[in-house]
User: What shape does this take?
Amino acid sequence: MSGQGNGALFNLARIRPGEFVHTSDEQGAVTTWRVTNVVERPKADGVEESVLDGPEGPRRLAVVTCGGDLEYINGIGDYEDNVYLYADHVN
Assistant: This one.
């Protein structure tokens, strides 16, 4: 949404493979993940199928946020792309 400043995932596209990201649950337990890929694709292409993969296989993290250029249609801002971050479970 425009006019509200940068969101929590604003810098997601700047993270590079090999870097670590951390998540925490409601009890405060931290999980570490190693980034394997970060890609930006047009929203018009739809959601990457790999984001929708089921629970089979090793644990992995997939994060999707908006990215690319901000365009305005009828005064409403929307980003043209989606940014996908994939990471493997470390601990």
Summary: The beta strands are 20-24, 30-42, 60-73, 76-89. Residues 53 and 62 are 10 Å apart (CA to CA).
